[in-house]
């Protein structure tokens, strides 16, 4: 959704002689529109709901904003805070509901039950970058790391651990998930500084994957930095409309009591505040109050909007509370008059009453105490027990969490996004053990990459042929080779710096020509999917498989890519090596951070190379491909077989 337009909005606060206005608005984001309920007559849809999955980009061109920010009460606000407040009104769980027919029970639409609850155990990090320096940068110091965790418009911030590159937070957060297709868990780590906090890495996890696995307890490599990893335990809690396993849930969260500041919940209370009737007039007789409602469960309290000058207010608002123990806790409701700061009535509902109700739900008018004789408040209240359901799997499926990577949600934002050992390891044991002895796995070199192909570790799948042309990210194996090492120089191992590789290829072609008649694609073909995601600002390339034309006993092929003219090593993408085969299946997904206008001026350089042994005479180039990306179809994307040639020119689509 992109809107850029001029407008004329004027605002005047007479008491402070203040005028402000808006002359243009820009808004960009991904909006979801839900058309429900479906009905049997025209217009077929009873209502529609609109919301953004995550905070949209919003730019407002103000006039007179400086005057507005001088008004008492507003002087602490800034332009960015105002934009945050406005944009959060449109982000899940907030939504705009538009009724299309009058008979629709809008209350049903405004009582959305979350799809689930995500419990995030934010445990620890290791090997973070040291951002603080001393003696004008000569002495490398440590960092003061903290994390910011986002799910939709729910934001949590961890405590700061002072001067520690291996911090242990051991904090737990619980977040509501309303629409998990497209929703993500976003985590960013920062180093706290007096001026501007330094970035220490980020992580993005698709919630579909967490729901599938139910429980993930793993180390994740941080994106957008050269080193660092984060240990998370993620639990997907299902909302159950029965109390049959409540005792089991209560026992399980009591067992965690020794964890610091856990605040774990056994149930979720969902409340729709509809309206009130016959409220008393407040302090002044015959004057209508300005009613608002205070709702509290334990020490958590929320309040409704104020309705002005009425004793029959209609709120139509939704609230949710995490509940620690519904057998012991109460919902307390108080209606207050905002104008005179006095109570208009209250009542208390023990949540144990909900446990005895059908579907754990009550929808009725509740009589207010300490109020008028017929004062009532209309609410719909539901309780849902939070249950961690076990995934039904055969015992040999224990490594699925490592195989199905929490799918690279930002359209495969980094192919280095792979988990490591699922339990807390000592600092150096988290990487898969290299196959060749004497390799230092911390040096992110070509040799180290070659020494740990995905199938060298039991965590990775060996049968990769299942998804030869599928784009479902959960089926890919992710390459350990794309490590964001910032290097300005071209890679020594690249064929660009070795023109001799092309000469060898020409000689091999001549040998083939002398012995046989060459087919349509003498050097074989490669199947690629190429598309640009404007939402993520990335070029996505999926290397599916390729057919290699010669070498009787089979080669050890791998594919490497550059987005020309960038030939630096940090710009290289490389698949794993496929041993002794003429028809390797890679199914690996890679990305390049680049905008659509920029990528249309660039060329994708693809080379199929033979790994061979370290000193093998067969090591070298098997074929090349240069793909200009100036295509109108790039945003839509395509999957295609390409012919390999000796220098990459004249690529022809094979199918």
Automatic annotation (TrEMBL):
Main location: membrane
Keywords of the record: Calcium, Cell membrane, Endocytosis, Endoplasmic reticulum, Lipid transport, Lipid-binding, Membrane, Metal-binding, Repeat, Transmembrane, Transmembrane helix, Transport
UniProt-annotated stretches for the region Disordered: 390-490
Residues of the C2 domain: 100-220, 245-370, 522-642
SUPFAM superfamilies: C2 domain (Calcium/lipid-binding domain, CaLB)
Ranges of residues in domain SMP-LTD: 1-101
GO aspect biological process, one term: endocytosis
GO molecular function: calcium ion binding; calcium-dependent phospholipid binding; phosphatidylcholine binding; phosphatidylethanolamine binding; phosphatidylinositol binding
Biased composition (Low complexity): 465-479
Name the record gives this protein: Extended synaptotagmin-2
């Amino acid at each position: 959704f992109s809107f850029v337009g001029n407008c004329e909005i004027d605002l005047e606060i007479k008491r402070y002689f203040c005028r402000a206005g808006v002359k243009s608005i820009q808004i960009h984001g991904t909006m979801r529109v839900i058309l429900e309920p479906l009905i049997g007559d025209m217009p077929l849809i009873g209502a529609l709901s609109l919301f953004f999955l995550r905070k949209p980009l919003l730019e407002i061109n103000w006039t007179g904003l400086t005057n507005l920010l001088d008004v008492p009460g507003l002087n602490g606000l800034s332009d960015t805070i105002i934009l945050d407040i406005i944009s959060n009104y449109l982000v899940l769980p907030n939504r705009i509901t538009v009724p299309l027919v009058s008979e629709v029970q809008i209350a049903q639409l405004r009582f959305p039950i979350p799809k689930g609850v995500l419990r995030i155990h934010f445990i620890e990090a290791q090997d973070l970058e040291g951002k603080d320096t001393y003696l004008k940068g000569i002495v490398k110091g440590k960092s003061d790391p903290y994390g910011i965790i986002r799910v939709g418009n729910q934001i949590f911030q961890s405590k700061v651990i002072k001067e520690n590159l291996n911090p242990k937070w051991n904090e737990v957060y619980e977040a509501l998930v309303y629409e998990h297709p497209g929703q993500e868990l976003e985590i960013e780590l920062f180093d706290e500084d007096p001026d501007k906090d330094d970035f220490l890495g980020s992580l993005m996890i698709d919630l579909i994957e967490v729901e599938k696995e139910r429980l993930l307890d793993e180390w994740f490599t941080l994106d957008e930095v050269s080193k660092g990893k984060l240990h998370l335990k993620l639990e997907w809690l299902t909302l159950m409309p029965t109390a049959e396993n409540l005792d089991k849930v209560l026992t399980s969260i009591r067992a965690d009591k020794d964890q610091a500041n856990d605040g774990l919940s056994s149930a979720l209370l969902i409340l729709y505040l509809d309206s009130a009737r016959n409220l008393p007039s407040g302090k002044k007789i015959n004057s209508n109050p300005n009613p608002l409602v205070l709702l509290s469960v334990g020490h958590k309290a929320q309040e409704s909007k104020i309705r002005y000058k009425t004793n029959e207010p209609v709120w139509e608002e939704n609230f949710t509370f995490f509940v620690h123990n519904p057998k012991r806790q109460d919902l307390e409701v108080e209606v207050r008059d905002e104008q005179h700061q006095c109570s208009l009535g209250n009542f208390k509902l023990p949540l144990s009453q909900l446990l005895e109700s059908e579907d754990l739900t009550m929808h009725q008018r509740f009589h207010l105490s300490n109020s008028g004789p017929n004062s009532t408040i209309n609410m719909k209240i539901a309780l849902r027990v939070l249950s961690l359901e076990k995934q039904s799997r055969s015992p040999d499926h224990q490594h699925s969490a490592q195989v199905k990577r929490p799918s690279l949600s930002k359209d495969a934002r980094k192919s280095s996004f792979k988990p490591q050992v699922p339990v807390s390891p000592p600092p150096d044991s988290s990487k898969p053990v290299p196959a060749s002895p004497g390799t230092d796995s911390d040096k992110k070199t070509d040799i180290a990459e070659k020494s740990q192909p995905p199938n060298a570790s039991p965590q990775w799948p060996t049968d990769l042929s299942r998804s030869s042309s599928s784009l479902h990210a959960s089926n890919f194996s992710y390459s350990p080779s794309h490590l964001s090492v910032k290097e300005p120089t071209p890679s020594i191992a690249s064929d660009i710096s070795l023109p001799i590789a092309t000469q060898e290829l020409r000689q091999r072609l001549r040998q083939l020509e002398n012995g046989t008649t060459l087919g349509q694609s003498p050097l074989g073909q490669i199947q690629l999917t190429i598309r640009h995601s404007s939402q993520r600002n990335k070029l996505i390339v999926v290397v599916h498989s390729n057919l290699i034309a010669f070498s009787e006993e089979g080669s050890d092929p791998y594919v490497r890519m550059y987005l020309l003219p960038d030939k630096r090593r940090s710009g290289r993408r490389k698949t794993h090596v496929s041993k002794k085969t003429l028809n390797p299946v890679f199914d690996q997904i890679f990305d390049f951070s680049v905008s659509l206008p920029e990528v249309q001026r660039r060329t994708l350089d693809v080379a199929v190379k033979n790994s061979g042994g370290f000193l093998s005479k067969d090591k070298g180039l098997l074929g090349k491909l240069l793909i200009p990306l100036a295509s109108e179809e790039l945003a839509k994307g395509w999957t295609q077989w390409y012919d390999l040639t000796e220098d990459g020119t004249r690529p022809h689509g094979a199918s």
